[in-house]
Amino acid sequence: PRRTAAGANQTSASSQELSRLAISFNNLVGKFKV
């Protein structure tokens, strides 16, 4: 169980980072479009 919890934490953390990257990337693209 402990190992599973750690894995789940890592996964949610990386997906959070991914969505944050996607948002900043979208902002960059928006700046270039304008």
Provide the fold topology:
Blueprint lengths: L1 H32 L1
Helix content: over 70%
Beta-strand content bin: under 5%
Whole-angstrom Rg:
15 Å
Looking at how many chains there are and whether they match, the oligomeric state comes to single chain
Shape: rod-shaped
Protein name: Methyl-accepting chemotaxis protein
Organism: Pseudomonas syringae pv. pisi str. 1704B
Written account of the structure:
This is Methyl-accepting chemotaxis protein. By secondary structure, the chain is an all-alpha fold. The model has no long low-confidence stretch (mean pLDDT 86). The protein is built from 1 helix and no strands. It has one domain.
In short:
This is Methyl-accepting chemotaxis protein. The protein has 34 residues and is an all-alpha fold.
Entry keywords:
34 residues, mainly alpha
